[in-house]
From TrEMBL:
Residues 2-122 form the MTTase N-terminal domain. CDD domains: Radical_SAM. Belongs to the methylthiotransferase family. MiaB subfamily. Catalyzes the methylthiolation of N6-(dimethylallyl)adenosine (i(6)A), leading to the formation of 2-methylthio-N6-(dimethylallyl)adenosine (ms(2)i(6)A) at position 37 in tRNAs that read codons beginning with uridine. SUPFAM superfamilies: Radical SAM enzymes (SSF102114). Keywords: 4Fe-4S, Cytoplasm, Iron, Iron-sulfur, Metal-binding, S-adenosyl-L-methionine, Transferase, tRNA processing. Its main location: cytoplasm. [4Fe-4S] cluster 1 binds at residues 11, 47, 85. Binds 2 [4Fe-4S] clusters. One cluster is coordinated with 3 cysteines and an exchangeable S-adenosyl-L-methionine. It comes from Maritalea myrionectae. Residues 383-445 form the TRAM domain. Gene3D superfamilies: Methylthiotransferase, N-terminal domain, tm_1862 like domain. This is tRNA-2-methylthio-N(6)-dimethylallyladenosine synthase.
Length: 445
């Protein structure tokens, strides 16, 4: 067996894709390793979302160049491939900057990986086309042993690409136009995961709630319909989905949150900013009030639902007053968790051409203030969980002897003293304390 080492950057879709790459290469005799020094093939599955993310790839390639040299001195060959969104965005440019790279391939070519790796043994290969065929049809199914080894929870991509073109974002260019997988294909993959021991599935899409896949009769169905179909799979206990766009939260999906207990009451719903002027120039296609009204409707349908979000500070033209509107929106929503970033100028996006770029020190200072508020809200949310009882899916041994760890509906790690035999089960747990991120509880019978 040859050894494959994959390093994954970026979002959950890259995590899912890295597993698909391992599955695809297993057929050509590659087995995954966590030890880079053993690798015959190293793949960096990259992210292009912010400048820093993209630059990480080149510093890693600097290290790989040295590693490859020392491997060659020992007579061992090592192939280097670049996958993911930097591969898609930069293509051949990567080889110009880093000649150590043998193979560059975008997210739409993973089903062709065995062939591409074969060619790369003799020549430099760049594959960044968006092919017409359905890559998912051609990707092999994960084997039962691998799904077990990968654990009790799994990602499952149901939709890829984005048609929204937010003016700061590279994703519509790196992942292409929105494509949804047919319902039957998703149900079959979910069943395969559940047969392999998976209890919780997170449906993935760049715009997952814009899902519109065909059913068996050729009718187009939304995410809510897909969720109801998956909810019927015996042995599947929990469903989640991410990332949603506020514009695509339809009534059917909100009702699914009301009616389906197995759909976890936790929603990642990025808003990015609280000022209507900035939302407009970001091309988010909604106002702050429309977002707040939407949240009211979701919380009316499912009062115990908690929210997380993404924020960008320092978008071009953002004044102190605009930033204050973001702070106010956060105060009004009360997030359970959130990710926040300084605006990063991405070449080729409309934002890069805008006047009034915000100075770095202003961005930095705003990010500090926003993160302080968001951290306080996260802490507040965790504290509000103490005294409550939630179902917890136990996933693994804890750090201390006699301890096991699972996840609450809100993705918080929960630690309890209990027997290892409960791993893989869902138990009602009463929470008695909270640490920085995790909760401590006791199983109630
Ligand atoms: N599809 C998702 C998010 C994809 S990218 C959505 O519509 O919300 C994940 C997050 O990265 C975004 O929500 C945004 O907050 C952040 N992001 C995207 N482009 C960025 C940029 N140019 N600079 C800083 N943050 C960015
Ligand atoms: Fe990027 Fe906007 Fe599409 Fe999200 S909706 S992936 S932020 S363009
Ligand atoms: Fe990054 Fe591509 Fe995901 S740019 S965030 S890896 S879709």
């Amino acid at each position: 067996m040859k050894k494959l080492f994959i390093k994954t950057y970026g979002c959950q879709m890259n995590v899912y894709d890295s597993d698909r790459m391992s599955d695809a290469l297993a057929a050509s005799g590659y087995e995954a390793t966590t030890e880079i020094n053993d690798a015959d093939l190293v793949v960096l599955n990259t992210c292009h979302i912010r400048e820093k993310a993209a630059e990480k790839v080149y510093s890693e390639l600097g290290r790989l160049r040295i590693l490859r040299k020392s491997q060659e001195a020992k007579g061992k060959k090592m192939m280097i491939g670049i996958a993911g969104c930097v591969a898609q965005a930069e293509g051949e440019e990567i080889m110009r900057r880093a000649p150590v790279v043998d193979l560059v391939f975008g997210p739409q070519s993973y089903h062709k990986l065995p062939e591409l790796v074969g060619r790369a043994a003799n020549e430099k290969v760049v594959e960044t086309d968006f092919p017409a065929e359905d890559k998912f049809e051609h990707l092999p199914k994960a084997k039962r042993e691998t799904t077990i080894a990968r654990g009790l929870t799994s990602f499952l991509t149901v939709q890829e690409g984005c048609d929204k073109f937010c003016s700061f974002c590279v994703v519509p260019y790196t992942r292409g136009a929105e494509v949804s997988r047919p319902i039957a294909q998703v149900v079959a993959e979910a069943q395969n995961l559940v047969d392999g021991g998976v209890k919780e599935i997170t449906l993935l899409g760049q715009n997952v709630n814009a899902y519109h896949g065909l059913d068996e009769k050729g009718n187009s169905k939304g995410l809510a319909d897909l969720i109801y179909r998956l909810a019927d799979i015996k042995g599947l206990d929990r469903l989640r989905y991410t990332t949603s766009h506020p514009r695509d939260m339809d009534d059917a999906l909100i009702e699914a949150h009301r009616d389906l207990d197995m759909l976890m009451p936790y929603l990642h719903l990025p808003v990015q900013a609280g000022s209507d002027k900035i939302l407009k120039s970001m091309n988010r296609q909604h106002t702050a009030k429309e977002y707040m009204d939407l949240i009211d409707r979701i919380r009316t349908a499912r009062p115990d639902l908690a929210l997380s979000g993404d924020f960008i500070v320092g978008f071009p033209g953002e004044t102190e007053e605009d930033f204050e509107a973001t702070m106010q929106l956060v105060k009004d929503v009360h997030y359970a968790a959130a990710y926040s970033f300084k605006y990063s100028t991405r070449p080729g996006t409309p934002g890069a051409e805008m006047d009034e770029q915000v100075p770095e020190d202003v961005k930095y200072e705003r990010l500090q203030r926003l993160q302080e508020l968001l951290n306080a809200q996260q802490k507040e949310f965790n504290q509000s969980c103490v005294g409550q009882t939630f179902p917890v899916l136990f996933e693994k041994k804890g750090r201390d002897e006699g301890q096991i760890v699972g996840r609450s509906p809100y993705l918080q790690p929960v630690q309890v003293d209990a027997d290892l035999s409960l791993i893989g089960t869902i138990q009602q747990v009463s929470m008695h304390d909270t640490g920085k991120f995790s909760l401590f509880g006791k199983i109630v019978t």
